[in-house]
Amino acid sequence: MVKRPDGMNAFEFAVLAGLRVGQLQRGCTPRVLQAPKVAVTAQREVAEHKVVQSANGTAAATEPAD
Question: What's the pLDDT score for residue 34?
Fold first, then answer.
């Protein structure tokens, strides 16, 4: 189970992680160590502030991929 960040409500966390899952499934580069499930990888990225919600409502990277 991934702990959501302080200051982020559960709905925002779930929506942002869901958007990121779609990006990862389309082939985007993961920004954290990959988990066996794409959803867990996306949740870890959101929890570690590697992705944030952009102005148009999509998940956006906070830093370039390694």
Answer: 95
